[in-house]
Backbone:
């Protein structure tokens, strides 16, 4: 569950060391639940999208109080937890518990789009056709289905990459529809990733970085000092307060103290 939270927006290479440190520090949901949420946000460090740390902490409290300190093994229970969406719930069921569940991450979706649908890339959102196709491909047996999902994900991540698919080494090259058509560009809109530079996300990250580095309160003046954009600063600060990622203190702001 921890790895799936971390992998939601961050590549494996950056997640792995942090995941190992995290589990060393908090080996069980109860351990995390007993730590202040500020510690979780602090230890998330530079993984990005730090709301995930807060949600993981909230989930650990619920797991401790309602699920006897265990991660539940049904889709409905998993999806009721903060920060767990359809993909994360499915991935936990498949990879942690070896169940038959439909895992559709970006790598599997790209592989299905190319090899089965003959398209150069996947659509921005999952369609009913894609879901039905993936369901039909999933082996019936629980373990086989989980292995299929892991294998398809690896094939998409390592061989059938977005920019430069290695078709000459691909084990399914003879069955690939896109390859057999000469790899034409499809007329399907691509999901556009917004720029980080100058974004609200960058400003939020900048504020949180300062607060993570200070155990005590940090004054508004210190926070605003290095902001390149006053208006962005105000909006980012308001968002972080609203989400409970930071708190107002007597002297300024800090990570949540409770
Ligand atoms: S043949 Fe090329 S495009 Fe087709 S699945 Fe393999 S790597 Fe992807």
Residues:
């Amino acid at each position: 569950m921890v790895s799936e939270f971390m992998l939601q927006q961050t590549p494996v290479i950056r997640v792995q060391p942090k995941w190992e440190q995290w589990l060393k520090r908090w080996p069980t949901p109860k351990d995390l639940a007993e730590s202040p949420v500020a510690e979780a946000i602090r230890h998330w460090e530079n993984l990005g999208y730090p709301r995930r740390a807060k949600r993981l902490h909230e989930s650990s409290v619920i797991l401790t109080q309602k699920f006897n300190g265990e991660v539940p093994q049904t889709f409905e229970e998993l999806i009721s937890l903060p920060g767990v969406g359809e993909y994360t719930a499915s991935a936990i069921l498949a990879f942690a518990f070896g169940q038959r569940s439909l895992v559709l991450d970006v790598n599997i979706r790209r592989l299905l789009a190319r090899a089965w649908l003959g398209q150069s890339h996947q659509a921005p959102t999952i369609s009913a056709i894609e879901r039905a196709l993936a369901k039909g491909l999933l082996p019936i047996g629980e373990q086989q289905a989980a292995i299929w999902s892991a294998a398809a994900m690896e094939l998409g991540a390592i061989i059938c990459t977005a920019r430069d698919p290695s078709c000459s080494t691909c084990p399914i090259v003879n069955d690939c529809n896109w390859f057999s058509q000469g790899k034409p560009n499809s007329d399907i809109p691509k999901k556009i990733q917004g720029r980080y530079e100058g974004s609200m996300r960058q400003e939020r990250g900048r504020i949180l970085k300062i607060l993570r580095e200070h155990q005590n309160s940090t004054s508004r003046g210190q926070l605003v000092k290095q902001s390149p954009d006053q208006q962005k600063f105000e909006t980012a600060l308001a968002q972080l307060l609203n989400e409970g990622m930071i708190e107002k203190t007597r002297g300024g702001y800090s990570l949540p103290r409770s």
